[in-house]
Design goal:
five-stranded parallel sheet, globular, disordered N terminus
Length: about 375
């Protein structure tokens, strides 16, 4: 079974073989290199190449090319790269999840901006890419921006990568892209893996509309406010959750969204221990309170279901607004939180709230 798999991998590179002589010529004595589906950027050792030597299983041996070699061999219809900022998507775990275009851009760039040069260095070493790396992360991006801008204005090709996925999506890059746009410098996306889209596609929850929330605020009050907005939204909500904060997240969401709201915990996507746990928030709280999972987590919660024609009455609106204001929310925030549950326009709800509670008694700063 295993040999058949190797045959299928190597077949495109095979050639008819004459009878073997006593000693095969050098070009026939080779090793088959391939990337197993579980090879992960996060499990690379100091020797990141995974090579398996296989004995001949027919009268000849087979030679397989690596992705980086194939990227060099295939002609590009795009021609030489033009100067500009390239936002390059990189694997979120599985090293096979990188495009030939991404490899070509990374090889051709004058410099690669990297969130963590040690982490990205493993990826570049794996694909034999020798382009210089320059650290670019949330703690130094404001200091680096002008120097990078100067290089771009000088006609250089600058590639930006994050530790995993697309740069600028809950990762450094947004401000640099905005700076380039403001200075008429081309910003070119090189699409690649995305934890958001990967999790959505396999979640089983509605994907026609969704809201990407990302990481929640650290401050408890702001975090609760954000969760209340999400709880009243009809679209699928997508969060990034650190593993050590999963129990806290499930405790807060189950109380705000309700115990029976469906959720999906997508963990270690594309890696060896990939897992999609599906159930209700209440069940998730119970299951994950028993053990803390490891690895990156993308957590999805189904949107609020509103039956056709269902809406809050004026008295219900007043009660909802009054409860939120008594909890310390501003008038405008209370209106924002209740608006998704009614067909009334937000301006009309605000007028109702002003009439009922008055601006001065609401601690509203807007």
């Amino acid at each position: 079974m295993l040999l058949r798999r190797y045959q299928s991998i190597a077949a495109p590179f095979s050639t008819p073989s004459p009878p073997l002589s006593r000693r095969s010529p050098p070009w026939r004595r080779c090793r088959i290199s391939f990337f197993p589906s579980y090879v992960s950027l996060f499990s690379l050792s100091s020797s990141p190449h995974t090579t398996i030597s296989v004995l001949p299983f027919s009268s000849g041996n087979y030679l397989a090319s690596s992705d980086s070699e194939l990227a060099e061999q295939l002609p590009s219809k795009q021609g030489p790269l033009k100067p500009g900022l390239y936002l390059v998507g990189t694997p979120i775990g599985n090293l096979e999840d990188i495009t030939l275009r991404a490899l070509r851009v990374l090889k051709s760039a004058d410099v690669i901006l990297s969130e963590d040069t040690r982490h990205s260095g493993k990826l570049l070493h794996y694909y034999n890419i020798r382009t210089p790396l320059l650290s670019y992360h949330k703690f130094n991006e404001s200091q680096r921006e002008q120097a990078v801008l100067k290089r771009l204005q000088g006609g250089e090709i600058v590639a930006l990568i994050s530790d995993a996925g697309m740069p600028g999506i809950s990762d450094p890059g947004m401000e640099l892209a905005k700076l380039c746009v403001d200075n008429a410098i081309p910003v070119i996306p090189v699409p690649g893996p995305s934890a958001v889209v990967a999790a959505l596609s396999a979640s089983g929850l509605p994907t026609n509309e969704f809201t990407f929330v990302g990481f929640l605020p650290k401050h408890a009050t702001k975090r609760r406010e954000r969760l209340m907005v999400s709880a009243n939204n009809v679209t699928t909500q997508v969060f990034f959750v650190p593993p050590h904060k999963l129990c806290q997240f499930l405790e807060e969401t189950s109380s705000i969204f309700g115990q029976y709201r469906r959720c999906v915990v997508a963990r270690e996507m594309t890696k060896l221990h990939e897992e999609f746990w599906r159930g209700t928030l209440g069940e998730a709280k119970e299951v994950f309170s028993l053990h803390q999972p490891k690895g990156e987590i993308t957590l999805l919660i189904e949107g609020m279901t509103i039956s056709e024609g269902e809406t809050l009455s004026e008295s219900q609106l007043e009660n909802e607004l009054g409860e939120l204001i008594s909890q310390g929310h501003s008038l405008s925030m209370a209106v924002k939180l209740v608006a998704p549950g009614t067909s009334m326009k937000r301006k009309a709800i605000y007028s109702l709230a002003l009439e009922k509670f008055g601006k001065h008694g609401s601690n509203d700063k807007t």
